[in-house]
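Residues pack. Consider this:
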Amino acid sequence: MAKHSEKPILIACPCCQAKLTVDPVLGIVLSHEEPAQKGPDVDLSNAQKILSEQTRQREDKFADSWFQESNKEDILAKKFEEAMKKAKDKPVTKPIRDFDLD
């Protein structure tokens, strides 16, 4: 029978610096503790600039979604026309069913 009195080994992962607790007898990871995440590196002296940039990005996204929603019918009609052109160019073939493959 294997020795169960051996203490677990504490290892630091070289890639992500996580702390692993490994059982030396069974060779399995008993626990995994991720390293503390660093917060964003933001200089608060530029907070107004950051907020105005975020506001501009929100307004741009809203304008894009408004344009797409207001022109949805035209966009779908063009997509349908394009799909019809592709369907006309493609030859009509009988679809392959699963039991046809045997």
Helices lie at 47-70, 72-89. The radius of gyration is 30 Å.
